[in-house]
Specification:
homodimer; alpha/beta; 299 residues; 40% helix; eight-stranded parallel β-barrel; TIM Barrel
Chain lengths: 299, 299
């Protein structure tokens, strides 16, 4: 019906960072354990920590300790989010394999969240790249890429041009994030028409569209997706919820479409059960709740 | 990227029947009111009741009273589910505009749920059609069309051949139902390759795939979908949940894709709030919880 789907995709697991960030603090050893179990399930890129102020984000305290504790596995990239040069220095000292930096495409959101203009924030990303000097790759995450609650739709050309500016400023790759759950297949198509498919996507389930957006992107040739174990992140059961696309739900879909991820779904579901125990509440992943479609009733 | 999407789709709202069926009984007047509010929002086909044993399904008791109480609007089809000839007689006496009859594609499911073989169940559907004698259209709903928890995947040819048998037996149209949430875009494509796009789809959110399946079907030219206000139906918050595709979530997506439904999203959301009040608990619709993407923050 349409062009063949990619044979394989790269999944960046962001649960231990983006997911746990929104939860009550969890012991460093438990965070390291969760990362190891996810890697055992086949995850090859994982946001392990954020080097942010522990005062501002208590649940990310001890980022260096988490990275020191993990039994590193060859072929796996252990990544960290950094908001500034100080964070980048700490992350490099902790031996991360790559960094994420976030710059919002929305002026309103940028001012509200980091008290910088989009341009100032892009400059800081460039300063981080100079500091890193090519020692590890830097993924620039463009937040509010599919719309902002302050300005509504942001033109695809404007969003893509911010992505290009970040690449020009030293980022190795760009991921477009649907921070507020405003992406739709139409918005995805509009952006990809400008950027081409060599981008990462970070999708949210706020309006139930994460999987349909991933599918639309896959049809357009995108092969990099962020997901979070269990759909951790935001407060998915509250009104205006903002959960990440659940790793289980995407892997379940991709398995059925015969798109390789390298991740074993049953072991991933076990990792999800560990994560559920750690955070102490149910998670939004539907596949975690219902089980994979291949799991039949015992009659 | 792919063929253009259909310009318009027909939505059959099943909340007052399929949705409320799973809830504690609600007063007849409230059920009639909900139907009227949904019609006011632009719904043109609505399953208003099921003529089933009130002992077996207490929440569907008073089906005739619901239909008698509704202020009928021209151009709207008020439909009922009937399990047998007795139900069909009662539904016709109540002046319904059309009937739904369900036949499972899964032997295991059919035996477990209606204590008949698939073949016996198809025969009963044929007997209903003879009784109705063309006075109103009959939609045959093939349940477990995309897999069964008892037998796993059921071959598309087998499912489609059951659909054809039901058409040959007097049904006016066929809807394929993902009763147990096992549909995926691959399974949807496999079935539609055999049936063509002139079918209805009844999708479930059990594994988070309802919207992506609807999108895949839309790309293949399908223009008839069942949805339920709020995603009512099943027990969506329990493990193994089985909510219907929420009307709000599909209309929200279709609005953005510029596929016409004739339904006004804001009025639909108001109907959802009424339904939430009637059932007394939150509903799974994500758009109901988060609001439409067009609703911006007040800064």
């Amino acid at each position: 019906m349409s062009a063949p789907l990619p044979a394989a995709v790269r999944i960046r697991e962001v649960g231990p960072r983006d997911g746990l960030q929104a939860e009550a603090p969890i012991a460093v050893a438990d965070r390291a354990k969760l990362i190891e179990v996810l890697v055992d399930a086949g995850v090859r890129e994982i946001e392990a920590a954020a080097f942010v102020s522990p005062k501002a984000v208590p649940s990310m305290a001890g980022a260096g300790d988490v990275l020191a504790l993990i039994q590193r596995r060859p072929g796996v990239s252990y990544l960290a989010l950094v908001p500034n040069r100080r964070g980048a220095e700490l992350a490099l000292a902790a031996g991360v394999d790559g960094l994420s930096v976030t710059v919002s495409a929305s002026e309103g959101y940028s001012q509200k969240n980091v008290r910088m203009s989009v341009s100032e924030s892009a400059q800081e990303a460039g300063a981080i790249a100079i500091l890193v000097g090519g020692r590890v790759p830097i993924d620039a995450v463009v937040s509010c890429a599919f719309g902002s609650p302050y300005e509504g739709d942001i033109a695809a050309r404007k969003v893509a041009s911010l992505g290009q500016r970040l690449l020009d400023g030293g980022a190795t790759s760009v991921t477009y994030a649907d921070t507020t759950g405003m992406a739709t297949p139409r918005r995805i198509a509009e952006l990809l028409e400008v950027t081409g498919p060599q981008v990462g996507l970070h999708l949210h389930e706020t309006r139930g569209t994460a999987l349909v957006n991933a599918y639309a992107a896959l049809q357009a040739g995108v092969t990099r997706f962020d997901t979070s174990i269990g759909g951790l992140g935001g407060s998915p059961f509250a009104a205006g919820s903002a959960g990440n696309l659940a790793t289980e739900d995407l892997v379940h879909l991709l398995d059925d479409l015969e798109v390789r991820t390298g991740i074993d779904l049953e072991r991933l579901l076990a990792a999800g059960r560990l994560a559920t125990g750690l955070v102490g509440h149910d998670m939004p992943s539907r596949v975690a709740a219902a089980g994979p479609r291949s799991r039949l009733a015992i009659s």
